[in-house]
Description:
The complex is a heterodimer of chains A (about 220) and B (about 120). By secondary structure, chain A is mostly helical. Helix content of chain A is about 70%, strand content about 0%. Chain B has a domain at about 30-85. Classes of the chains: A mainly alpha (about 220), B mainly alpha (about 120).
Amino acid sequence: MPQSLTQVLTLLRSRYTVATLSTPQTSGPSPFPASCTSPLWVRIPLFLKPTVMLQTNPINVGMGIMTLYFQHNGHGIYTGLGLNKFGVPYLSISVSLNVLLTLMIVIRLILHGRNIRTATGSLAGITGWYKMISTMLIESCALFAGSSLLVVGALAAVVYSSTRYSNIPIIGSFVVDIFFPVLAVIQVCAFPRPQSLGQLPNATMDRTGDRSIAHH
Amino acid sequence: MLFFQCMTALLKPADRREEGVKWWLVFYTVAMFSFVTVRTALNLHMESTSLIDNRQDIPGDTPGPLVYQLIIRRMPLGLISSSMFNVNNWLADGLLVSALFDATVTHPGANTTPL
């Protein structure tokens, strides 16, 4: 781990200058290629991948369990403590986690596409704004994020406002009833697609580029 | 439909240079699909129970199918139907993290610096 700010800056700078970073001295055979240029604190061992995958946000999982517990033990699934104290934070944490992870992937994707474009000309990479934006929308979970935001906003309007002076909760409950079942299906539809297209960003890019060449 | 397209793409990968079919992704997708199928089936069962079978059968001060649905959603079937959403949320986040893991850890040499 980097100890000071200067070390962090040095690591970041060496991250961005590819050839000059010397690979750290390891005792055994390294699973990484010799051209590996990531800093040490990024190099998580590869066999830890399932662990890292499923321990992403334990707070999120815990919030979900607490939501279920209080929904099914309290005074009812819509009026008890569950949605008030745990349901809205659970969905908010879920949305924020998804948006952050998606941004972290999409930024890499966009920069990589720009690199391909500048390195090999405009044919091999993603050409034009249309494909760039469509790749961004497909690879990101824009569908899931949008419907999640609708559900969270409407649910907060239902839970945190009173029916005495306005009809906001009624409209909000309509929106929740419409979009929450859709959300559960969107979750399954939107997430495995980018993985099926190709696991690496550059694989997806190359395949899209091939397709564009073939169509032209 | 999307599930079957995804299965086709996973089982017949266009890129055969590498290790071939990624079986963990196949099992992951099948698991997520079956979870959401369980959830949909339970929801449909509860809807039909409340709206068709026991439409006016509740005596006392809780009339109507929606109130009946609120009551039966607190029972174990409703709990299973709700927990399927949470499990799917967990698995979907794990899939997203695995994509980020592949992009950053497994292939860190991909230079993302704007040239």
